[in-house]
Design brief:
With about 150 residues, the protein is α+β, with helices and mostly antiparallel strands. It is built from five helices and four strands, in the order αααβαββαβ. It folds into two domains: about 40 residues, Arc Repressor Mutant, subunit A, CATH 1.10.10; about 80 residues, Alpha-Beta Plaits. Strands 2-3-1-4 form a four-stranded antiparallel sheet. The radius of gyration is 20 Å and the shape is elongated. The model has no long low-confidence stretch (mean pLDDT about 95).
């Protein structure tokens, strides 16, 4: 179900995207809206499922995982696992931060982080390609992320 949001809700969402821990008082000040109004709108956005959760953004470089890569995976349909089950199984691998079911020549798109390209290569060769249902893979190293 499509839910339309107005300009005030969009302003609130933009503030929360920048800092999900931002207080309603600060958001209210930044968008020139009463604090109670901001609080009520955030509550409604959560109830409607527009705000799914509040989370953090980890700087992977600072915890020893400076290398990112994107991996396209083709699904082998002649196995006992479904494409959705395969995606869930892959999502549990250490280093896999995102899994998307996509259309086109490949069926899944993964975002992975690691200590180095060599470690990401080990993930692909030693773990990912050994999972039943995984066909071909195509890996792209990320030089720099401009926007997420």
């Amino acid at each position: 179900m499509l839910t339309r949001i107005d300009k005030k809700d969009q302003l609130i969402l933009n503030q929360l995207k920048q800092n999900s821990r931002n207080s309603t008082k600060n958001i209210a000040k930044n968008i020139n809206t009463p604090r109670v109004t901001v609080h009520d709108r955030i509550k409604k956005l959560k109830q409607k499922g527009i705000i799914k959760k509040f989370t953090i953004k980890v700087d992977n470089k600072k915890i020893g995982l400076p290398t990112e890569a994107f991996i396209f995976v083709s699904f082998q349909s002649n196995t006992e696992i479904s494409q959705r089950e395969l995606a869930k199984k892959i999502s549990r691998l250490h280093g896999v931060t995102e899994v998307h079911i996509i259309s086109g020549e490949y069926d899944l798109l993964l975002k992975v982080v690691g200590e180095s390209l060599e470690k990401i290569g080990n993930l692909v060769v030693d773990r990912l390609r050994k999972i039943k249902g995984v066909g071909r893979t195509l890996t792209f190293a990320c030089f720099q992320t401009i926007k997420e």
